[in-house]
């Protein structure tokens, strides 16, 4: 696995609590759930308070993150405050107050830098200012790849602990898909482009003509484009008329299969991803990707842009795309390389399980060092 670091078991200290309480923001996000050990390890993460009723908890709803509030911090007991996601719209001065509130109660503050360029922000100024507060205020900084750690060192002078992204797909589904994949690939070669609800970081229209060309040159090549109704249907909340017009015209010409639908459940998403041979990430900027990890769990090859640290996160077929330029020929080569490489073998449940325990142990050791 890329990004694995050696974990050590911290020495036993009788004055330290045997159970550590962590306020993880958020707690019910799949990443946070999967960095927790499957066995009891003495780390208890508080449940996400329900934004509609802060006095009761929920396993699923975490937006907006109620824990990102100085009053909540002052009124609750925890040993470590661990910020992961959810501060996209927070002003830097609000984040400074949160850091100060955590410090005032004597708790440790940990920040995991998933995004060094926020995929939800069209420009980088706000996120850069947010990161400056968190990088300065955190007792410990974590990230997912050596490349991101090097960027953090260069930009903020912080040494970040590198821990890989854990599995995204549940182990039962991973095992089921692995059995299906082992039966062999069909006669078609299905390439998927998922435009979802079109984050600002995504630019599918820029790459689609080259993608159509690349897939059409392959025996049995099929290009499947999926998107949400709010982007591709008239009257949608985020409708993109230019993209919708291109896709419908390309479908009429027989260049692609277009599937428009509502948000997919986890089960539907895993079924969709496992039906593909390749998934293409149309990002002009970003850093890491949970989508990429889900593809690794399911044996779907990934064609990823050169922006961010996707190639450092796991094996991908890279093509040139960032905020400044797009290399059309490199995308065609990446699709052809994915075809020539043959079927992708999913990561095994056993490997992901070992990785999860390693990541959980490293987090537990870090928390205890700060408690």
Task: Describe what this molecule looks like in 3D.
- The chain is an alpha/beta fold and 371 residues long.
- The protein folds into two domains: 166 residues, Rossmann fold (3-Layer(aba) Sandwich), CATH 3.40.50.2000; 171 residues, Glycogen Phosphorylase B (Rossmann fold), CATH 3.40.50.2000.
- It contains 14 helices and 14 strands.
- The strands form three sheets. It has a six-stranded parallel β-sheet, with helices on both faces.
- β12, α11 and β13 form a beta-alpha-beta unit.
- α3 runs parallel beside α4 and α7 crosses α13.
Short description:
The chain is an alpha/beta fold. It folds into two domains: 20-166 and 352-370, Glycogen Phosphorylase B (Rossmann fold, 3-Layer(aba) Sandwich), CATH 3.40.50; 171-341, Glycogen Phosphorylase B (Rossmann fold), CATH 3.40.50.2000.
């Amino acid at each position: 696995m890329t990004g694995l670091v050696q974990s050590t078991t911290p020495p036993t200290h009788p004055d330290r609590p045997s159970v550590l309480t962590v306020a993880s923001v958020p707690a019910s996000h799949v990443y946070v759930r999967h960095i927790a050990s499957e066995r009891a390890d003495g780390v208890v993460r508080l449940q996400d308070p329900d934004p509609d009723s802060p006095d009761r908890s929920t396993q699923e709803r975490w937006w907006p993150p109620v824990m990102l509030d100085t009053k909540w911090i002052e009124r609750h007991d925890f040993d470590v405050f661990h910020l992961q996601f959810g501060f996209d719209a927070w002003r830097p001065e609000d984040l400074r107050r949160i850091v100060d509130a955590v410090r005032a109660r004597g708790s440790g503050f940990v920040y995991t830098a998933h995004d060094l360029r926020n995929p939800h922000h069209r420009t980088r100024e706000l996120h850069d200012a947010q990161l400056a507060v968190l990088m300065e205020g955190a007792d410990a900084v974590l990230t997912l790849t050596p490349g991101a750690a090097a960027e953090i060192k260069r930009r903020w002078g912080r040494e970040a602990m590198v821990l890989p992204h854990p599995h995204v797909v549940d182990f039962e589904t991973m095992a089921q898909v692995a059995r299906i994949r082992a039966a062999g690939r069909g006669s078609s070669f299905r390439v998927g482009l998922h435009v979802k609800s079109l984050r600002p970081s995504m630019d599918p229209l820029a790459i689609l003509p080259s993608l159509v060309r690349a897939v059409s040159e392959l025996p049995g090549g099929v290009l499947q484009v999926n998107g949400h109704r709010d982007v591709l249907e008239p009257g949608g909340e985020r409708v993109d008329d230019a993209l919708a017009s291109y896709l419908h015209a390309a479908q009429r010409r027989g260049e692609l299969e277009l599937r428009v639908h509502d948000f997919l459940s986890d089960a539907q998403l895993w079924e969709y991803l496992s039906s593909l041979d390749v998934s293409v990430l149309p990002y002009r900027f970003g850093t890491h990707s949970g989508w990429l990890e889900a593809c690794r769990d399911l044996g779907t090859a990934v064609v990823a842009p050169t922006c961010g640290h996707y190639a450092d996160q796991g094996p991908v077929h890279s093509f040139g795309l960032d905020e400044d330029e797009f290399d059309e020929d490199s995308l065609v080569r990446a699709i052809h390389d994915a075809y020539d490489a043959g079927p992708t073998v999913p990561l095994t449940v056993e490997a992901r399980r070992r990785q999860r325990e390693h990541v959980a142990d490293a987090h537990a050791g870090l928390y205890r060092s700060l408690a």
